[in-house]
């Protein structure tokens, strides 16, 4: 056995750190006596039903401006006091130079238990400046002045904005896939577009809940955000297997899926749905959310998806590139594409490798920054911003993949016609039926070229999930391409061949 290389050792170490990482619970801010006194005084002043008594404040403490805050529908009184004290104490701490001997940090001081000159987390969160729409000048002039109670006060404004940007990116991808589904030339292309639409819908759902969660961070919005993200990860894994196995296209001459394909797809779908439900039940029934398990679950599913697409890319790389003749005719015979390399076979690698690399931004976890002392941008918001172009890259691959299976775009000219057929073949075609001989001749020529050039791709295939290694997973069975010589491809070829004869 060869000793592990340094690259393998580093990769294993990084993976171990990710899987073994624990969430940070060290919230210095909410455990400090200064914060506890501040919230007690605020609740006494703002919360009419609060049973707490005002805590004694030292004479040199600065009174927090609680009158500037008011509860709302999404921000009840206790949450408003927590936010007000976080902002007040953070501003006060940043206004002092970091001197450990300062009086403010001594017992009874205004900043007791808090470091000077630094930001700290409260309840596991940084003290962001929220975007309060209820304080706009328009609100007092609205009827009954009650609309301000329903206007959102965005807890993490930039994370909300970047989540909306990701939501829009998924929406654009969904529109492109739905267009391909409606206007597809081949049944296989339309079905594959519908498979990819499943991923697009789960992505939309995930980013909607991300917007809700970053608007107001409470228990149920947090769990909804995590569950929606996990559902997107599971859907990505489902899509990868369906695409690679070819369960979107028939492996026989008929237009419907074969019984074996139906059973396999049903078992795979039911298994992932059961896995997701068990995942949600485990997290939802626990008294305390298991962040470590949730992170490991998502990492494992994501790595499995990346691994499958990497295998698909490897299998495609072992297939031959179509010649000029085959490239012109593949649009007329999409079923023959399983024998040739897809032009976009490297396209899934950049987004799949960039996404986990950009996730490293979460490890930075720096205090929020912003102009004029505003606390807006943190590592999590930066990560949301970085995923927008990655989402666009991924949908570009999905669209190109559907077009390839549908006989559009690269690898074939939709306006191409079959070349002139030799006279002997034309006579044979006349006996069998008009146009059939020419269609068979071109299809056999394309397939024979693929068989001649795929000795390495088929003989040394990966053999993963049945026909994946032999056919690159285009249709799940290599016999479909040859069987279509007298089926769908023949009809298309005959029509185009007649056009070719007129030339």
Automatic annotation (TrEMBL):
It is a multi-pass membrane protein. Keywords: Endoplasmic reticulum, GPI-anchor biosynthesis, Membrane, Signal, Transmembrane, Transmembrane helix. One of its GO terms (cellular component) is endoplasmic reticulum membrane. The chain crosses the membrane at residues 158-177, 226-244, 265-285, 297-315. It comes from the Eukaryota. Residues 1-26 form the signal peptide. Coiled coil: none annotated. Residues 473-503 are annotated as: Disordered. GO terms for biological process: GPI anchor biosynthetic process. It is found in: Endomembrane system; Endoplasmic reticulum membrane. Residues 473-492 have a biased composition (Gly residues). Involved in the lipid remodeling steps of GPI-anchor maturation. Belongs to the PGAP3 family. PANTHER family: PER1-RELATED, POST-GPI ATTACHMENT TO PROTEINS FACTOR 3. This is Post-GPI attachment to proteins factor 3. It comes from Rhodotorula toruloides.
